[in-house]
Design brief:
The chain is α/β, with parallel strands linked by helices. The protein has helices spanning 8-25, 39-51, 69-72, 103-115; strands at residues 4-6, 32-36, 58-60, 91-99, 120-128, 140-144, 151-156, 162-167. Strands 3-2-4-5-6 form a five-stranded parallel sheet. It has a three-stranded antiparallel sheet with strand order 1-8-7, with no helix packed on it. Helix 4 links the parallel strand 4 and strand 5.
């Protein structure tokens, strides 16, 4: 299999529909949204606009909170976290592009708790791969597939936002 392009608008439509249904079932009426740097922020920007969330989008960088930070180190383009709202008692929609091992999400949740105790955290991912090393799953995802170790997902953006499966 060679590189594969995905229709990002169809995937965002799925995320929007699933998120609206989730919020209705769980009676979440005034959530805040936080995207994980970098591509998770791009996905969150698109979803934030589609859901017409009134508060500004938060951005989180979980790099320093990862349990493998000493081994992996800093990414080249490290961006700071920015939460322009209080999260104490709020319902947080935490958005990432790809969930794989679960380590980034664990770090992100640890960082969120440094800002306060949210009422709930809902994990939304564009793609959920196999290969969890921690028992952390997105409640909402547009695509659940495992292409194999010879491939990676590449999210490009923010304008235009695109998704491609790339052979490595």
């Amino acid at each position: 299999m060679d590189n594969k392009n995905y229709n990002i608008n169809e995937l965002l439509d799925q995320l929007e529909q699933q998120t609206r249904a989730w919020m209705q079932v769980h009676q979440i009426t005034n959530p805040v949204m936080v995207g994980l740097h970098t591509a998770g922020v791009w996905v969150a920007q698109a979803l934030h606009q589609r859901l017409a969330i009134s508060e500004a989008l938060g951005e989180l960088s979980a790099t320093f909170y990862r349990d493998d930070f000493n081994r992996v180190g800093l990414h080249r383009q490290q961006k700071p976290s920015h939460l322009p709202f209080e999260i104490e008692g709020r319902h947080v929609l935490l958005v990432d592009d790809v969930v794989y091992t679960g380590r980034t999400l664990r770090g992100a949740m640890n960082e969120l708790f440094d800002f306060g105790r949210p009422a709930s955290i809902t994990v939304i991912a564009l793609i959920a791969r196999e290969g969890r090393e921690l028992p952390i799953e997105p409640q909402i995802n547009a695509l659940r597939e495992e292409p194999g170790s010879g491939f990676r997902y590449q999210v490009s953006g923010p304008e235009p936002l695109s998704l491609q499966l790339v052979k490595i």
